[in-house]
Design goal:
Elements (H helix, E strand, L loop, with lengths): L9 H14 L5 H13 L3 H6 L7 H15 L4 H5 L1 E4 L2 E4 L12 H18 L2 E6 L5 H9 L3 E7 L2 H13 L6 E5 L10 E6 L6 H4 L4 H4 L15 H9 L4 E10 L5 H10 L4 E6 L5 E6 L1
Helix pairs in contact: 1-2, 1-4, 2-4, 6-7, 11-12
């Protein structure tokens, strides 16, 4: 326990961080302070409310001060703490992965009925997750469908490493195969379902993104080329060779890309069977057969 002028309670630390974040113009100072304090001090929200006088150790004070400074520099909270929950799974992050977003859960919700239908029909469902990052999409589906298997691919070895670590963390590794690949380059099998949340931001737009994204997210996972459609063009033109009969493909899209992405898949012989919007009612996911 700390003593004297260096002593600090979890309640005081929380209030101080809140104020610093407000002064810095952060959008969610209360949430940011609470999450960072919890990970620095192991104090839950309930404990912070019911026992605000609990003293922090010197190591906890130092860690929390470092967290606060990094957040003021606009490093995202979940990069600071090193993980983000997605579909009920805590997923580790590294410099090669994007932070999984709640909006992407829309894609999982959309395809799960098909996965269950596939399992009911044949006893299994094989999934290919292109550009897997943390493994969020594939692992979320496997957690809900015990008879599904997933092949996860990524161009970045460090992303694949993190995805496999996350699979082990949730005891899903026996149903996961990883391939380092530039889209379909090193893929050879056919699958019941292909999924991807590819880079879809136009190159020129990246420099105008918020600091939290522009300076901390891997640009390889953001940059979709001149129009933001490069990955969709590759995936739509090649995926038929990697789908089983009656197989389907689903992709996440940018809010203004529904028509252009649908056109690419239509030109490749696919038909859109479902489209979903995200929590802000923006177009977010498309399903093709």
């Amino acid at each position: 326990m700390t003593n004297g002028s260096d002593a600090k309670s979890i309640g005081q630390a929380y209030r101080d961080a809140q104020q610093q974040f407000r002064d810095a113009g952060l959008e969610t100072p209360d949430i940011d302070a609470a999450l960072l304090l919890e990970h620095a001090s192991d104090a839950t929200t309930i404990e912070r409310i019911t026992r605000p006088e609990r003293q922090m150790t010197g190591a906890q004070i130092s860690t929390f001060a470092n967290f606060v400074e990094r957040r003021i520099d606009r490093e995202p909270v979940h990069r600071i703490i090193g993980e983000r929950e997605f579909y009920g799974l805590a997923l580790g992050l590294n410099e090669a992965t994007l932070i999984p977003r709640p909006d992407t859960e829309i894609l999982v919700d959309m395809v799960l009925p098909f996965v269950q239908q596939c399992i009911k029909k044949s006893g299994r469902c094989s999934i290919l997750d292109l550009g897997t990052g943390t493994g969020a999409i594939a692992l979320a589906i496997l957690s809900q469908a015990p008879k599904a298997t997933a092949t996860i691919t990524d161009l970045e070895p460090k992303a694949l490493e993190m995805a496999l670590t996350n699979a082990e963390r949730h005891q899903l590794q026996e149903r996961v195969t990883s391939i380092q690949s530039d889209w379909f380059e090193n893929v050879s099998e056919r699958y019941d379902l292909i999924l991807s949340n590819p880079p879809y931001i136009a190159s020129e737009v990246i420099k105008a993104l918020s600091v939290d994204v522009r300076d901390y997210d891997p640009h390889l996972a953001l940059d979709g080329g001149e129009t933001g459609l490069d990955a969709y063009s590759i995936i739509s033109s090649q995926c038929a060779s990697y789908l089983k009969t009656d197989g389907r493909i689903a992709v996440e899209i940018g809010f203004d890309q529904k028509n252009s992405v649908t056109k690419l898949f239509n030109q490749a012989g696919f038909k859109a069977i479902e489209a979903r919007t995200d929590l802000n009612r923006n177009n977010r996911a498309l399903f093709f057969t």
